[in-house]
Every structure is written in C-alpha cells, then in structure tokens.
Amino acid sequence: MPTLQRDWWALPTLQSTNVTLTYVLMRNLTRNPLRTGLTAVAFALPMGIFVLALSLVVVLTEAAAKNEKQLRLAVRNKMALTGYLPDGVRRKIEELDPQRQRLRAVCAMRWFGGRVPDTQDTLTSLACDVDTFPVVYSDFELSPEEGARWQSERRAAVVGDGVARTHGWHVGQRVELKSTIPPYLRLEFMIVKIIANSSPPNMFYFRRDYLRDSLEADGATGAGCNLIWVKCTSAANLRALQQEIDALFANSPSETKSEDENAFISGFVQAIGDIPGLARSMALVVVFIIALVAGNSMMMSFRERTSELAVFKALGFPPRRVFGLVLAESLLLALLGSLLGIVPTATGLALIPRQMLISASFSPPRFSALAVVGALTIGIVVGLLAGVWPAYQALRLRTTDALRRVA
Amino acid sequence: MSAADIELVEVHKHYRKGRIDIPALDGLSLTINAGALVAIMGPSGSGKSTLLHLVGGLDSPTSGAVRVGEAQLARMSERELTAWRSRHVGFIFQMYHLVPVLTAAQNIELPLLLFHMPASERRRRVDTALEVVGLTDRRDHRPSQLSGGQEQRVAIARAIVTDPDVLLADEPTGDLDAKTSEEILNLLSLLHADFGKTIVMVTHDPRAAAYGQRVLHLDKGVLDRDEVNPRVAQAVRV
Ligand SMILES: Nc1ncnc2c1ncn2[C@@H]1O[C@H](COP(=O)(O)OP(=O)(O)OP(=O)(O)O)[C@@H](O)[C@H]1O
Ligand SMILES: [Mg+2]
C-alpha cells in the first residue's frame, strides 16, 4: 500500500504558458509518419515550383527596372511592328532637340531575322546604326577596345550570353547567320562583345551599314528601318518626346507609335505569351492546391482525434490552448513542408551557376531572397489557413458530445 | 485528503434538437456526502452521463443549482468552469480516452501541465499515482501496448494526480471483462476508503453498483430510487 504525504498534494497556481504542449505537438506530428511525410511533400513540391516561378518574376521585374533606368524610347511604325519607317525619321527626331538637351542619341534598327544555319534557332537579330549604338546601349558597357572594334570591323556583332553559350561562341569568333526574311541573305559576322545577363538571352546586334551594303549588293533595297531607339536624358523628357514624336509624324505616310522600353517589350512579349503573368497565375494555382491538400489532410487528421481534443478540454485545458495546439501543428507541418521545398530549390538557384542553365531561348531565374521570403510567407499563411478551421472546430467542440460519441 | 459534497437542486437539462425539446434531466434534486462512493444506474438515455457532466462542470444546467463543495457551478462561466475542473475533478471514461502518442507517465502528467510546478515535482506526483494504480513498471508504455484494464488504471492515475475532490466515472468497467472490472472497482474502492475521495460512478452492471454505498436509480431524467447498500456502507475500511 503506497503511503501518501498529503501536504505536497496542494496544487500551486494555474500557469499560463503554452510551451508545455510542445511535446504533445511534436508527438502528434510523428504519430502517423507516412501522412505527415506525404502532407509535407504535398507542400514541398509546389513550394519549390513557387520559388522558381517567383524568382523568374523577380528576374523579369529587375530587368524591367533596369530598362526603365536606361530611359530608352522605342519608336516604330504605328501600323505594324514589322512595318518600315524611312531613314529620314531618325534625322527628324534628332532635329527636335539639336542641342541634345533632352535626348542623348538616336539609333535606328532593322530586323534581320537571322537564324543559325542548320538549326531552328532564330535569334533576336537587329542591324543598328553604328555611330549611336554604343551610346543608346551604354548599359552594355563596351570597353574602349570593344568600341573601337565595333567601329572598325564592318561585320562586328554584339551578342547575348544565352546564344553565345548555346552555340559555344566566343569573342573574336566568325559566325554565320541566315536571314529568314527575303532575300534570305547569309552573312558572316565577327563577335566583338558578349552581353552579360542579356534579356532576352538571344540578342544579336550588328551594323546596319553592313546589312545595307549586303542587301544592295544583292539587288534589294537597304533603306528603311523597323525600330528607332531614342535615349533620353530624363523620364520627363522621355514622356514629352514620346508625345512630340508621335505628333510630328501624325498624318504622315509613316505614322509612328512611341513607347518606353518596358511597354515595348511587354507588348512584344505578349505577342509570344505573357510569361510573368503566366508565372504569377501558376503560383496562385499552386498556392490554392496546397491549401486544399493541406487543409483536407489537417481536417482528416483532426477529425480522427476529436475525442482526444475533448479530453484535453475535460482535463481543464482552456479552449484557446487546444485551439493553439491544433493551429500550431498545422503551422509546423506547413513550415516543415515549405522548407523541404524551398531550401533545396533556393540552394540550387544560389549554387548552380546561371551560365550552366542559360540558353538562347531561356533566361533562367536567379536566386532571389525575395522569392524565398515570399514563398515562406505563403507557406505560413497557408498553414495558418489550413489549421484555422480544424482549430476553430476544436475550440467550439462540445466536450460532452465528443466524449459521448465514442463511448 | 480533500473531498467535496455534491448538491443538486431542481436541476433541469434540456437538449434542443430542431423543434424537439429533450429533457435529459427533469427537475432532479439530490445530495451526495463528501467522501461517499455512489453508483448511478438507470436505462440508456435516462440522463446518467448528463448528470455526471453537470457535476463535473463540463456542461451547465438549463435551470437549477449544482454545488460541488464550495463551488456553485450553475453560476460559473465556461472559463471559470474550465479552471475549476483542472483542480477539483477527475474524470474516468468507459473508453479510457488516453492520448495515444503519449506514454503512461506522460498521460498521467498531462493535467499537471496546467500548473506552475517544477518537472521534479510533476515526476514525484506521477510516480505516486502510478504506484497507487500499480503500474510503476509500465510507466513508459504507450496505450497501445497496454491491456484495457491497464489503460483504465492509467486513466484513473491521470484522474487522481491532481488530487481532485471528486472522481467521476462514466461506466469505467463497461469495456472490461469481469475479472479486470473487479480490479478496477477495487482500485476505486481503495481511493474512496484510503483517500476519502467522493466518487460518483455510472454503471449498467449490478455487480459494479454493489461497490457503491448508495445506488441512485435514474429514469427519464428524475430520481427513481435511492438505495443504501448496507453491506458496503459499513465496510468503509481496507
Ligand atoms: N447533445 C445532445 N443533443 C440532444 N440530445 C442529447 C444530447 N446529449 C444527450 N442527449 C439526450 O439526453 C438524454 C440523456 O442522455 P445521457 O447520455 O445522459 O443518457 P445516459 O443515461 O448516459 O445513457 P447511456 O446509458 O446510453 O449512456 C438522451 O435521450 C440523449 O439522447
Ligand atoms: Mg451515458
């Protein structure tokens, strides 16, 4: 017969901390390892994709921000992207600001539609005015030697890192492109510069005088351009010039449409497919799916435990602590799953050199702390949302009914 | 050696199911002395569990007064009832209701987590409770590794570890065979005799009811018969 000392049975004050349930929480997670594992994976996979998609959006957003800083205005034929503008347009634009107060330089370009021979790889190839190209694209940072070679070498080409990597091109190499536009010229070029972080990665700039001469030698006309870039001195000047240029050519045979670089690119990109929009809606769908999957599995796992939660309440655990217990479990599982997806993806993005992934057609996402924080936040929110309903059920649970039901 | 008396005055408990009003308890009045071991019998649906839940502060009556020791339960808020329960009541259920992921010792420790108490103190109490129910050698077993009788003994240890004034048992032997039932009933008798607990036990089994000093018969929410069990009433010794 055990003897009890009655005096130490006296109970101290009720405590209000929540840490004591941590153990129960941890044990609950390991109660059904298969289900915990599957739920975590259900979180991990979409979260990994989510980080990728978000990183991609971040890269594109950064590129857009970078473009904005360049203060470039794109002037094109109002009727069609591929329509021509007379060569005189450049001069008329320059005459709007002879003192070069509001615009720095104007560079006209012409589509070449070049394709690497014997491949399906069509590059974004543009023939540019030789004199102003280095000014308008000062962000390419041509060194004095590179600039000199661009000026002296008629076949000079400045190419994106993606296309360079795909075809193993290097500076000083002779390469050939075949035009997909009549008269289907086949031209030889000499690479003078590879652009780091080119966006898109398959850019191919070369000299317009070279194209004009080659076209005329072939009996075709070399006059006309498709696109005129105006490098401005300020955002306000850019907006003003945009109005003035379009007004200048209004009611002329070659009406223009001017827009800033990002508007031009997004218009251009939308013609192919809205990638940032796609990435965003993909991310939304993904979040929705994990919320459903996780929520459902939380509900199932708590429904099985109704009487157990009721016991906690019967023993005198305040409802809010039972609420907390359920919510914390959901949150912990969500966090676990999210990290399982986010950490390897982010590590991969951070460690695998971008150069290994880049290609002519694909601009790979870069590691982005913003994407990681964003994904983690979404994971936490989804975990909370998935747990709130079962936790609320636990809070409202009528102890008497729950205990009767099983008995 | 804490124990409390119990007094119910004109207690009504009605459940509403849609339009239908179910009177689970219909003006029930009764008194149970401190330190008594009382059995409650009655047909299914007669309100036995309802009575136990009201006495244990798990639910509030529709009308009437419920007093346990000093506490006027009908006047207390849900929050007050919750705090009161943790200190003054121990529940024992037919289905034991142990937390499956916790060991016997951890299950018993659970109610102590509500109190400011060093781990060593909790351990001391858990050890004592384990000793009382005779399961010291099973302290690290999970419920799934225990027999039904052992599980119920863990549940009893969990119910007494806070030294409550009242123990409320709803068909504690309903799921056990005759021999194990007897062990459990002996244990309850011991808690009653040695520690002076007030014990209210609902049962369908006349042999279990025979352990009570008093047997209350409920029918349709009212007291039908109130028997004193002379044999047991005298044998308050172990
Ligand atoms: N939440 C509820 N809603 C509606 N009716 C209820 C509810 N809980 C209990 N009842 C009804 O109250 C009455 C008494 O129920 P109680 O559980 O107290 O009976 P009992 O005597 O314990 O029965 P048993 O021996 O089957 O356990 C029953 O008619 C039951 O259907
Ligand atoms: Mg019952």
List the keywords.
heterodimer; A: 407 residues; 10-stranded mixed beta sheet; 10 strands; disordered N terminus; B: alpha/beta; 6-stranded mixed beta sheet; 4-stranded antiparallel beta sheet; disordered C terminus; binds adenosine-5'-triphosphate; binds magnesium ion
Q: Average pLDDT across residues of chain B?
A: 91
pLDDT < 50 runs, ≥5 residues of chain A: 1-10
CATH architecture of chain B: 3-Layer(aba) Sandwich
So how many helices of chain A?
15
The computed structural class of chain A is alpha+beta
Tell me the fraction of residues in β-strands of chain B, as a range. 25-35%
Give the strand tally of chain B.
Answer: 10
Estimated helix fraction of chain B? 25-40%
Write the layout of secondary structure elements.
The complex is a heterodimer of chains A (407) and B (238).
Chain A: H1 22-29, H2 33-70, E1 72-77, H3 88-95, E2 103-111, E3 114-115, E4 124-128, H4 133-136, H5 144-152, E5 156-160, H6 161-167, E6 174-179, E7 186-195, E8 203-207, H7 208-217, E9 227-232, H8 235-249, E10 256-260, H9 261-272, H10 275-303, H11 306-314, H12 319-351, H13 354-357, H14 369-396, H15 399-406
Parallel strand pairs in A: 4-8, 5-7
Antiparallel strand pairs in A: 1-9, 1-10, 2-4, 2-9, 3-6, 5-8, 6-7
Helix pairs in contact in A: 1-12, 2-10, 2-12, 2-14, 10-14, 11-15, 12-14
Chain B: E1 6-17, E2 20-32, E3 37-41, H1 48-55, E4 63-68, E5 71-72, H2 78-88, E6 89-93, H3 104-109, H4 119-133, H5 148-160, E7 166-170, H6 178-195, E8 198-202, H7 206-209, E9 214-219, E10 222-228, H8 230-234
Parallel strand pairs in B: 3-8, 3-9, 6-7, 7-8
Antiparallel strand pairs in B: 1-2, 1-4, 4-5, 9-10
Helix pairs in contact in B: 4-5, 5-6
The complex binds adenosine-5'-triphosphate and magnesium ion.
